[in-house]
Amino acid sequence: MDGGSCALWLSGVRAGYGKAPVLNGLSLSVKKGEHLAILGENGAGKTTLFRAILHLLPDIAGTIRVLGRDVKSREDGAWVRSRVGYVPQGQGKGRLPISVFEAVMLGRWGKSFSYFRRPGARDRELTAEILDVVGLWDLRDKDCRALSGGQTQRLHIARALVREPQILLLDEPTTYLDDASRDVLARLIDQVRKKWPLTMLMIIHDWQYARRLADRAVYLRRGRIEECLEVV
Ligand SMILES: Nc1ncnc2c1ncn2[C@@H]1O[C@H](COP(=O)(O)OP(=O)(O)OP(=O)(O)O)[C@@H](O)[C@H]1O
Ligand SMILES: [Mg+2]
After folding, report:
1. Whose CB among 22, 77, 123, 158 lies 3.0–4.6 Å from 134's, allowing a Cys bridge?
2. Which of 14, 38, 41, 47 to mutate to test the pocket of ligand 1 (most atoms within 8 A of CB)?
3. Which domain holds residue 167?
4. What is the tens place of the pLDDT at every residue in 24-50?
């Protein structure tokens, strides 16, 4: 398989932050529409893998193919980032005094509106649709700084979804969530899957939770994918 039919295809990837690479000959392929869980110890390189996919690291060797395109140049990196949604690890609450609706719609900044172009009907429609899917529609007028941790996590996911990504990267989406909020998040991810045929990569520490959310789980160790575990 050369990765043409894959959402993501990585082969022999070496990348890091200088000196010894964090990813060291990593290979991985993810099919279109697949939900993949990534497990691994603290410091194993899980977040670094996401940063490599997004072309956010200084030196990347090996092949990274995203949606059939080899990612090598800065232009390729920008192309990838316009198609791959990213919810980073441990994001706090926003500091701006804006409503939940506005905070989510801001996800479309640079895509369909900017300093020179105001948000249009399509931006509002899509924001409303996604707020409904993530269960934040009733809170749409609330100040986004006043949300709980679980609600804030859903807001971050909504803000990534509103850009209409083909691939979504979620880095430890369950951090700070209690059991009830983790259930809500799992249902949200099911809902998203029913509505949009997204490819999803989720960094998750809890194996049981990974089984619930993903079709397949991989284990990252010493800069490589060490085990592939089918989730049945
Ligand atoms: N900006 C950076 N500059 C230099 N080294 C970094 C940087 N970010 C991460 N590292 C190093 O790269 C290695 C992998 O870090 P990474 O954040 O990818 O791990 P992780 O698997 O996501 O861990 P965690 O489960 O704690 O989030 C670690 O040794 C870390 O110290
Ligand atoms: Mg991390």
Report:
1. 158
2. 47
3. 6-230
4. 999 999 999 999 999 999 999 999 999
